[in-house]
Amino acid sequence: MLRLATSLLFCTTVLLTTASQAGTLNVRLILSDSSPPYQQFAASFNKALAAGNADVIVTESQTISDSITDLIVTVGMKAAELAVNQTGAPVLAVMIPRMGYEELLAQVAPQSPARAISAIYLDQPWNRQLDFLHAALPNRHRIGLLHSPNTHIDVAHLRRDIADRGGSLVAQPVRSTERLHSILENVLDGSDVLLAIPDGMIYSSSNIRNILLTSYRRGIPLIGLSLSYVNAGALCAIFSTPEQLAEQAGSTAILFSRTRQLPGSQYPAAFTIAANQQVARSLGIELPSPEAIRSQMDRAKENGR
What is residue 168's three-state secondary structure? Predict the structure, then answer.
């Protein structure tokens, strides 16, 4: 009887210790800078973890310390590169484009093939973007696309996906910003909508205004990447807010606290739609409301699109 009681006590102690270890997570949140989107992410991420047993330390990218860390969550490309190059802890990189994540893996793999690195992308999956385009602009089938060599887009695959939906892709590479304007004009000649993608060489702060003005003068709506694009003159955009990405990152961190394993890289689970009805009226476009666009996208998903 004493032996049984001792055995039960030992098992209970092991279970409690394991549960305590699984529930406690030392997270270091590293921001690329202190701009509002990153601060919004930090506040929402802390809130998402508040219900769990997690210690969260918020630092900016210039100050990585040697304190014990179970998981590093980085926000933005700069922070992700810093964490991957300067630490050995598991890294969850958030608010980075898929191409940026793949470049990080390519850098790390030769030195540490088993390194635990995952991501929650900033960009939307192609199927979601195409569903969005069809719901917002059902009568515009010629999709213009500018891309630099850094994005490594599978143009042939994307072309087939668009063709399956009854559209066509007008894509041209931009290898230098000096030729951006002439290539943009060529793409607009064969397009009735221009789709922006996360490409820092093309859609930089110094280029976006000229791209918006050129497409607007040609009567070709630009589909943007964020609310700031819509406010600047893009017709509409589908994107995930810092708060939405932070909630997803928080859920991933809590899962990590239980399993000590990172899931595979993920696209954003939640998304937001924004529309600029003033631009729509100026271009003579009957643009559905964001709610109507989302409903149409849901129906397309239900129908197996």
Answer: strand
Q: How far apart are the first and last CA of the chain?
A: 64
**37: which 2 tokens?**
């989107």
Domains and CATH numbers, the chain: 2-121+244-259 (3.40.50), 126-239+271-302 (3.40.50.2300)
Q: What is the pLDDT along the chain (305 residues), one digit of tens a residue?
A: 434 333 433 333 333 333 334 447 788 999 999 999 999 999 999 999 887 767 777 776 666 665 678 899 999 999 999 998 888 889 999 999 998 999 888 887 666 656 799 999 999 999 999 999 999 999 999 999 999 987 888 899 999 999 999 999 999 999 988 999 999 999 999 999 999 998 889 999 899 999 999 999 999 999 999 999 999 999 999 999 999 999 999 999 999 988 999 999 999 999 999 999 999 999 999 999 999 999 999 998 887 65
Record the pTM: 0.86
Residue among 86, 79, 123, 76 nearest 108 (CA): 86
Angstrom distance (rounded) from CA 72 to CA 29 = 6
